[in-house]
TrEMBL record:
Protein keywords: DNA damage, DNA recombination, DNA repair
Family annotation (SUPFAM superfamilies): ArfGap/RecO-like zinc finger, Nucleic acid-binding proteins
Gene symbol of the encoding locus: recO
Similarity comment: Belongs to the RecO family.
Pfam family name, one: RecO_N
Job of this protein: Involved in DNA repair and RecF pathway recombination.
Any one Gene Ontology BP term: DNA recombination
Name the UniProt record assigns to this protein: DNA repair protein RecO
Length: 245
C-alpha cells in the first residue's frame, strides 16, 4: 500500500476499540482525510499527544481500503495544550475546526489549511482577543470557500457608498434601494470593523468598542450559519470577551 507524508492539523478525534482512535485531519497537500492512529490511547504511546485536536504535525501514513493509517507523527505546532488552558481560546478553536471540517467537506485547499493553522497559532499565543480571532477566521474562511461578504459596496447591485443595512442572505451590506422593508441598520463603525476583520486589519479591530464587536459577532454568526446548512454546533458556546483586547 502506498506510503505518503504530509503536514496536518487535527480537527477532531473519535475512539476506536480499546486503544485506537480515528482522527479527522486537514492536510496541507491531500485535503481532508480520516485516518486510524493505532494504540494512541495507551499510556506508552509515542505519538498520542501529537494527535489531539488543534495540534499540527508532520505525519507519515499509508493508504488503507476505507481509512488511512498513521504510522509516524512529529509535532510541528503544539497549540492544543496552550489553547485548552484558556476557555475563550478553547471555545473559539472548537468553532474554527468545526467550520474547517464543514468548509472542506469535498476537498481541502492549501489556503484553508494555512488560514486555520495561522488562526490556531494566534490563539495559542494570545496575539489578539479570542473572539476577534474567531470572527476574522470565519469571514476569511468563508471568503476562501467562495462566499466573500461585501462590507463596502451594495452586495446586490454594487452601488458604491457607506451602507449600513445588513442582509446576510444577500451577502452583506445593501443600499437603501435594495434593502427589504424592516432591514436592521448598524453603526458605520460596526461596518468598518467587519471590513477590518475580513482584511486582517488588527490595529483597527483591536481599537474597536465592545458594542461594535458585539454587533459584528452577531452578524458574522448569522452569515456563517446561513452558508453552512447545518450550522456550527460550537458557535453558541463560544465565550465572547466583554472588554476590548
Amino acid at each position: 500500500m502506498p506510503v505518503y507524508r504530509d503536514e496536518a492539523v487535527v480537527l477532531r478525534t473519535h475512539k476506536l476499540g480499546e486503544a485506537d482512535r480515528i482522527v479527522t485531519l486537514l492536510t496541507r497537500q491531500h485535503g481532508k482525510i480520516r485516518a486510524v492512529a493505532k494504540g494512541v490511547r495507551r499510556t506508552g504511546s509515542k505519538f498520542g499527544s501529537r494527535l489531539e485536536p488543534f495540534m499540527v504535525a508532520d505525519l507519515q501514513l499509508y493508504e488503507g481500503r476505507s481509512l488511512d493509517v498513521v504510522t509516524q507523527a512529529e509535532s510541528l505546532g503544539s497549540y492544543g495544550a496552550l489553547i485548552t488552558q484558556d476557555y475563550s481560546a478553547y471555545t473559539a478553536a472548537n468553532a474554527m475546526v468545526e467550520a474547517a471540517d464543514k468548509l472542506t467537506e469535498a476537498e481541502g485547499s492549501l489556503q484553508q489549511y494555512l488560514l486555520l493553522v495561522g488562526a490556531l497559532r494566534s490563539l495559542s499565543r494570545h496575539e489578539h482577543g479570542a473572539s476577534l480571532t474567531l470572527d476574522s477566521y470565519l469571514l476569511r474562511a468563508l471568503a476562501l470557500a467562495g462566499w466573500a461578504p461585501s462590507f463596502q459596496d451594495c452586495a446586490r447591485c454594487g452601488k458604491v457608498g457607506e451602507h449600513t443595512a445588513v442582509v446576510v442572505q444577500l451577502g452583506g451590506v445593501v443600499c437603501d434601494e435594495c434593502a427589504p422593508p424592516g432591514t436592521p441598520r448598524i453603526a458605520g463603525s460596526t461596518v468598518a470593523l467587519l471590513g477590518a476583520l475580513l482584511a486582517g486589519d488588527w490595529a483597527f479591530a483591536k481599537a474597536s468598542s465592545d458594542r461594535d464587536r458585539g454587533q459584528a459577532s452577531g452578524i458574522i454568526a448569522a452569515y456563517t450559519q446561513w452558508h453552512l446548512e447545518r450550522g456550527l454546533r460550537s458557535l453558541p458556546h463560544v465565550s465572547r470577551e466583554t472588554t476590548a483586547q
